[in-house]
Write a structure and sequence with these properties.
The chain has 2 domains: 45 residues; 174 residues, OmpA-like domain (60s Ribosomal Protein L30, Chain: A). The protein is built from 8 helices and 7 strands. Helix 4 runs antiparallel to helix 6. The longest helix has 22 residues.
């Protein structure tokens, strides 16, 4: 029979199975090598999240301190979320020049002040905020003073002792601010709200200096009358909220 001119088909069946693979290259066995590395990575991530879950009851302040230290070491800009404390919300942006260490210190300071107010049962009469100047604790005026007076109430001294302890623990400059509403004063020892607000701030500072013996260069007393309200002066509730004493723990460079 004549030759057809076409190449002969392989007669060996085993050779037919290898037509799709280059000659001389052995067949691969098992999963590719990259799958092993991928599985190792997934296992490590699983262990990491299990570890995080096991720490779910850890001290929040210590956890934030750890995170802040890691961010500072890695040179990352701190991401600062909104702060909710004592029933009021405040926020601060990460672009205000704060370092990781300052952010951690602010968290610890907030924790101490919140605990001090809660121990005295004054959470409903206080608010804690982060501002561009630092951490500000505001307390309603009736906690410290009788109406129209700058004489400290005896029951206010327990809170002031706790504030003094915080001052010793955090050596920041503290601005003590007196605020009133905008209603004119009736007959009394003070001619206007300016004198009253300043006298109240001074009375608080005098206690911290003379009784708690904290260095005087740490403090400044300021009176604002009703010029910096946090609520409307047009309602009794708003005016009551505006009458307050604020402790502003300044941040470095924010004086």
């Amino acid at each position: 029979m004549a030759e057809s001119g076409f190449p002969h088909e392989p007669s060996d069946p085993a050779m037919g199975e290898d037509l799709g693979r280059p000659q001389g290259r052995p067949a691969e066995e098992g999963a590719p090598a990259w799958v092993v590395t991928y599985c190792d990575l997934m296992s490590l991530l699983l262990c990491f999240f299990v570890l995080i879950a096991s720490f779910s009851t850890m001290d929040v302040i210590k956890y934030r301190s750890l995170v802040g230290s890691m961010r500072s070491a890695l040179g990352a800009a701190p991401s600062i979320p909104s702060v909710v404390a004592l029933g009021r919300t405040a926020s601060i942006s990460a672009g205000d020049g704060m370092t990781g260490r300052e952010s951690v210190t602010d968290e610890m300071l907030e924790h101490k002040l919140t605990a001090a107010v809660a121990e005295e049962g004054l959470t409903g009469s206080s608010s804690l905020q982060r501002t561009d100047r630092g951490i500000a604790l505001a307390v309603r005026d009736q906690v410290f003073f009788p109406p129209g007076s700058a004489e400290l109430r005896p029951e206010a001294l327990a809170l002031l002792r706790k504030v003094a302890a915080v001052c010793r623990h955090f050596p920041r400059r503290v601005f003590v601010e007196g605020h009133t509403d905008n209603l004119p004063l009736r007959a009394g020892a003070f001619a206007s709200n300016w004198e009253l607000s300043t006298a109240r701030a001074t009375a608080v500072v005098r206690y911290l200096l003379e009784v708690e013996h904290i260095a005087p260069e740490r403090f400044a007393a300021c009176g604002y009358a009703g010029s910096e309200p946090v609520a409307s002066h047009s309602t009794p509730e708003g005016r009551a909220e505006n009458r307050r004493v604020a402790f502003v723990f300044s941040r470095a460079g924010a004086d």
